[in-house]
Amino acid sequence: MAKQPMPEQSRMQHNLRVGIGYDSHPLVPGRRLVLGGVDIPYDRGLSGWSDADVATHAIVDALCGAAALGDIGTLFPPQDMQYKDISSLILLRKTGNLLKARGFAVANIDVTLIAQNPMLSPFIHDMRRCIAQALEVDIEQITVKATSTNSLGFIGREEGIAAQAVALIQR
Asked: What 8-state DSSP symbol labels residue 79?
């Protein structure tokens, strides 16, 4: 039986792919706090192999999910010395380049940072700019929001920070 051609609407829908990402790291003394590629003044930073930027890590995972590339640990294995203390924006740029090589473009990214402290709203625009530059997209394609847990859980006790992201890509 011959395969029927797809209607235009259906072809267009198959060119859109969505992925979600999540990351969290503990707060520790003696580390810089980097979120969305921006240094945030704070008395602690996030512990991790790279700069532990949970916003960027969640975005990388969302993009990887959308393009069926695995996850951040697959692309950039922990304990690999080339990634020790690396800027997560470099990892994001590399992920963006992998997407382009596979014929994908970022439609939009929406990331939510979850932190009891510090107050992140003054840094949102700079985070959007850094993420957009790393992916070579317009800043209007990037949304960054911040919320707290109203003092609930490990985030509410200020033991760590988390982020979740959604990415829409298109062929």
From this structure: T
Q: Which residues of the chain have pLDDT under 70?
A: 1-14
On whether the 19-170 domain is CATH 3.40.50.300, my answer is no
Q: Are 92 and 131 in contact (CB under 8 A)?
A: yes
Calculate Rg over the CA atoms of the chain: 17
User: Considering only CA atoms, which of 11, 168, 60 is closest in space to residue 104?
Assistant: 168
Q: Residue 19 CB: number of other CB atoms within 10 A?
A: 22
Cβ pair 23, 54 in contact under 8 A = yes
Closest by CA position to 24, among listed 167, 157, 170: 157
Q: CA-based angle 160:164:167, to the nearest 5?
A: 155
In sign, the C-alpha dihedral spanning 32, 36, 39, 44 is negative
Q: What is the pTM of this model?
A: 0.91
Q: Quick one: pLDDT at residue 26?
A: 98
- Residue 3 sits at φ, ψ, to 5 deg, of -75, 130
| Element containing residue 165 per DSSP (H, E) | strand 160-170
Asked whether the CA dihedral 20, 25, 27, 33 is positive or negative, the reply is: negative
Q: In 23-136, which ranges are continuous DSSP H helix?
A: 54-67, 72-75, 88-101, 124-135
